[in-house]
Design a protein that fits this description.
By secondary structure, this protein is α+β, with helices and mostly antiparallel strands. The strands form 3 sheets. Strands 3, 4, 5, 8, 9 and 10 form a 6-stranded antiparallel sheet that branches. The radius of gyration is 33 Å and the shape is globular. Helix 8 packs across helix 11. One of its GO terms (molecular function) is amine transmembrane transporter activity. It is found in: Cell membrane. Keywords: Cell membrane, Membrane, Signal, Transport.
């Protein structure tokens, strides 16, 4: 009996020792597993992207002398976060091409953007960076200015120009259709006039037809302003006008209307974008007020970039 009890005791002690060892080993396995999981979490965590470095402290811009180009150079001077940055000035087409490529590859890019423009129709998932210093202003209007004496010389042309107003979406639709179809802005603008006679009738209310009266519209070379100029050209030609659209640099727009070389312009962006030029010549032309409200300019990025403000950027030190 004693021998049996002794064997059982020995067996129980052996089992206990095995369980203790297994328990200790199990604890080590659990710790190793947790460590392994933690390491995996660290490996899987995405590092925060330094977008400033990613774009090489460069803003992709458009033509030198454009209102937004001048304003962006001011922003670089005013924002500490843009210290040491540069704006790559080239052309609107080049900017749009770089934007297309960046978005197709989900790569970072910062552009000088504005509404109305067809890029927002093509890439709706874009956003303006907040501008706490107000360098780019709030929403803008596009104004109509005419030479002094136009109302006396060409009263019907003056009346039509004065009654012209439309929406951001109208202009963007023309620009986007031109981009998608490959048709030039003038052709698309003529189609728009045919398809939007309800709006056209409001502009032409009380306007009499003429017989070949010349009228010169001075515009900038950008598609947004070309859209409005060619829409009005089409409307006026249906009333018997002989219309010329002259695209020039924005500074020359104001100079031409001020000195009477052109009859009217639908291109000035106010109160900020073209303020310097407007102020220089403001006493030498007549301001007929906005032909479009809700325009906007600023620095624009794709939605997939985790940026909200210009101040989220970093100086190039």
């Amino acid at each position: 009996m004693k021998k049996v009890l002794g064997k059982r005791l020995t067996l129980l002690m052996g089992i206990t020792i095995v369980l203790i060892i297994a328990g200790c080993g199990g604890g080590n396995d659990t710790d190793d597993s947790a460590t392994s999981e933690d390491a995996g979490d660290n490996d899987g965590a995405s590092e925060e992207i330094n977008y400033s470095e990613a774009v090489e402290y460069t803003i992709t811009g458009i033509e030198p002398g454009a209102g937004i180009s001048v304003t962006t150079e001011k922003a670089i001077e005013e924002y500490d976060s843009l210290s040491g940055w540069e704006v790559n000035l080239s052309s609107t087409a080049a900017m749009a091409s770089e934007l297309d490529e960046a978005i197709s590859n989900e790569e970072p890019i910062i552009i000088t953007g504005w509404n109305p423009h067809w890029t927002f129709a093509q890439h709706p998932d874009m956003k303006y960076l907040d501008d706490p210093k107000g360098i780019y202003g709030e929403t803008e209007v596009i104004k109509t200015i005419v030479r002094q004496g136009l109302q006396d010389d060409k009263p019907n042309g003056y009346k039509l120009i004065d009654q012209f107003e439309w929406e951001v979406e109208d202009m963007e639709s023309i620009m986007y259709e031109s981009k998608e179809t490959g048709d030039d802005i003038e052709t698309v603008a003529e189609r728009w006039v045919e398809d939007n006679q309800d709006k056209v009738s409001e502009w032409t209310e009380g306007v009499e037809e003429v017989d070949g009266e010349p009228f010169e519209l001075v515009s900038t070379p950008w598609d947004s302003e070309r859209a409005s100029a060619y829409v009005i050209k089409s409307v006026m030609e249906r009333l018997g006008y002989d219309v010329t659209v002259t695209p020039v640099d924005v500074a020359v727009v104001f100079e031409s209307i001020a000195n009477g070389d052109g009859d009217a312009s639908l291109a000035p962006w106010m109160p900020l974008t073209h303020k310097d030029f407007y102020d220089e010549y403001s006493d030498q032309f007549e301001d007929l007020g906005p032909n479009m409200e809700g325009a906007k300019i600023g620095l624009v990025v794709p939605e997939y970039m985790d940026l909200e403000s210009i101040e989220d950027l970093q100086p190039n030190e």
